[in-house]
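[Meeting: bench + compute handoff]

Bench side (C.D.) handed over the final construct sequence. Compute side (W.E.) agreed to return the predicted structure before the next meeting so the bench team could plan truncations. Sequence as handed over:
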Amino acid sequence: MSNVLKSVLLGTAFAATSVTTAVADGVELEVTHWWTSGGEAVAVSKFADAWNATGNVWVDGAIAGSGGTARPIIISRILGGDPMAATQLNHGRQAEELIEAGLMLDLTDVAEAGGWADIVNPPALLESCTLDGRVYCVPVNIHSGQWIWLSHDAYQKAGIDVPSDWNEFVATAPKLEEAGILPLAMGQQGWQQNLAFGAITIAVAGTDAWREVTVNKNADVARGPEYTAVFQAVADARELARGSNVQDWNQATNMVITGEAGGQLMGDWAQGEFAVAKQVEGQDYSCLPGLGLNQVLDTGGDAFYFPVNDDPTITAAQKELAALLISPDVQVSFNLAKGSLPVRGDIDMSTANGCMQKGLSILAEGGVLPSGDQSLSADTQTQIEDLMAQFWSGDMSAADAQERYAQLIEDAD
């Protein structure tokens, strides 16, 4: 347990307060999350509608900004004795210390009753919700970061074909620039730049080198030739994104939608923004998983945790909501809107668009890797994001960035 968490727990007498209110026909639950873009708002409404349809009430606690902004607020409320009824976090190690401190509801009985061990695919998603054999969260989707999104309008204006992989994308950049189009849209936030770094790593260095570094914490490989090529590729990408001054990821996605930029390195959640803009995959935009080079995806994503409280009515409602979020119909409606893959391997996703079908095929073929959230602690992730923000935004050399990254991997927990 971190010293910060210890000090907060020692200094705060945890007493769960009113996370919910009993209403005439059900229970009112406050649910916090950071899904605030147009596509995300549509997706989370699927959860809210399903919960409200049970006679209960979803009180939306949206927190503007990215997960990096929202998570400290969420954790502060839980530690401060003012918990919400349910909260989005990424499945992995983000809630590890809160679970160890006894602040998260044990959902093992719900998981066993619902047969989650048999339906969650890949099994690593449920394992990431499990600590010491007990289940503490419900995974709701699979999000992968290894995608590039390409604007057909931008390439038509430049008079060139839409690229089929990362190497072709880099080669087309001069033609885009000649046409007054920014080659690469990039939001100026560390998590976005780190996501792009991860996508380029898998495309350039391959999965074996990535796994050695991210999963096995092998600093020698991080200092080796495979990662030298990665950092040079990222330095090249940095130049392609020099004119991108937007902050949020969805603003960068909009640059692709409007043809202001040729492409964006972003996770599959970008699909929600294209859907809201009424754009059609294969006609208005293209999506390349693994950047068109390595057809693999990581299995990151979102999960919901339920802070402990002392009211049995609330606890029962929390468990009811947990079961609902992973139910077949809700999994279909939510993930179709979100652009993510469902965590259930037993539902019909035949109506999904071409990008989702690509992801589903890769998942079915077993071409998946664990996400950084599953392999690295939140502290290490934050340090890497800070490094990437400095690297992408400044003039740090590729060699210096590689050495600093290798040191972080060497010290990773």
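W.E. noted at the follow-up: Confidence is low (pLDDT under 50) at residues 1-24. C.D. will use this when planning the next construct.
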